[in-house]
Amino acid sequence: MTRSTRRSRTVALTASAVMIALGATACGGSSGSSAGGAPGKGGTLTILDKADFDHLDPQRVYTTEGSSMDEEIVRTLTGWDETGSTPKLVGDLATDTGTQSKDATVWTFHLRHGVKYQDGTEVTAPDVKYGVERFFSSDINGGPPYASQWLVGGSDYKGPYQGKELASIQTPDKYTIVFHLNQPVADFNETTAMPGWSAVPKAHDTGSTYDTKVWSDGPYMIKSYAKNKELVLTRNKFWSQSTDPIRQQNVDQMDVKFGQDEAAIDQQIKADAGTAQTSIQQWPIAGSDLAQLANDPSLKSRYYKIPAPGINYLAINTTRVKDLKVRQAIEYAVDKTTVRGAFGGSAYGDYATTMLSPGIGGYKKFNLYSANPAGNLAKAKELMKQAGNPKPSMSIAVENTPTQEHFADAVKTALERIGIHVNISPIDASSYFSTVNNTKNQYDLTWGDWIADWPNASTVLPTLFDGRLIKRNPQANQDLSYLNDPKVNALIDKAAKMTDVKQRNAAYGQMDQQILKDAAVVPLTYMNFSDMSGSKVGGVIPDTILAEPSLVHVYVKH
């Protein structure tokens, strides 16, 4: 999932992607209530965003900002309670986190009674079935791929608009929904926490224009929506706290304003005057402001440093840089201190040595290369010598932003020291991933970042390193290192069949090590995203699933 212009969970955030590190708590920011005890009621929360949401239609949304906003409007089968020190999966529309068959190919959910839409009608299992079926329509594109990958018959189904239903989703009664999967999926109930696994009442579905007309069963409903200008949410008077274990309904309105520059938003919230006092941002603090704002003690109580479930990395194209010794030399030569500096310094994240982030199921701590993040030049030169001292020229693909170009300069400087000449290829940020994911456009080195869709390695390593997917998805290839290692592919297949989560996580840890043994990628940083709010905003929860400031308990102080 992405935290910015980019959609998918190869989601990228204009200069960084976002999605998985769980379990860490944020610095600063009150996630509880005000000193007086209960959160304040009433008032308007203003949300300042540099751009409109890619989508709010729950079956199309695949950015972190859009997903976070949808939590206020729609409810999903399961969801994350993030009031504790680590996220906990709970039933949302469903009474619990679902029941799986012995082989994890059939999942059953029972809906809560009395969950109501904005018109007072009750949410039913057929509404959830219809919502999930919308995933399959070509008019409703952009969302995650899991429904079509996993539901029996999904590869041939074309959605509900021709009047056809998907037989693998059954609703034996008004409150029960059953999914039949074509393979065991032990963490399917974490998938169902994504926005698309929600109810859409057929009578209110407006197809491809549903983005601006999403029908609410959450605490807030759309009052008005002028694309690229403003979205106003107001209370859904039929929402009931007694049926919702995740959200509260504290403010009267949420007013989302679009179109200001990132740095201008930073300065406005920092100044904390007028409506800025009751404002918050959803896009991260600009890289140019990060170090200064992160270290400003006066902002501490309203600064949120949120660990992303994600990784910032340099992919080495294993089909172009064929010599393992040369790839290992690159691992030792890259200076992660200058690289991290380009992204904003220590506030941006800890140095990475693995492709799985701490907090992701399957993460295993190891380091196969330099103990010093600045690299080990002597070891890198020794490996180049063993490779016959080649003097190759290599291309590096980056986005055409100041942050990324500084990053490319840091890589170029490091590699020139071991005799590798680097040519920088800046690509327009708005089309960066569609360019590098097309197999016609191959570079020796490619910047990438990735955020897990939920905190499990199953949403990271198989997508990024299953070499068999390269041919299958030539225009949407996520394997930027073009790794096609039979050992990795075998571990992917083995892990997919495991229903025991501990066993499966061990297999993913092993897979991560094999990928680094292949020197296919240089992990750079485990990403953090930093946001601010005004001094009169309370109840913000650092959401480590989406790496967003969650608004589910937000209130304004009077």
From TrEMBL:
InterPro entries: Peptide/Ni-bd (IPR030678), SBP_5 (IPR039424), SBP_5_dom (IPR000914). Residues 88-466 form the Solute-binding protein family domain. Gene3D superfamilies: Dipeptide-binding Protein, Domain 3, Periplasmic binding protein-like II. Coiled coil: none annotated. Residues 1-26 form the signal peptide. The keyword Signal applies. PROSITE patterns: PROKAR_LIPOPROTEIN. It holds the Pfam family SBP_bac_5. Keywords: Signal. This is ABC transporter substrate-binding protein. The lineage of its organism: Bacteria, Bacillati, Actinomycetota, Actinomycetes, Kitasatosporales.
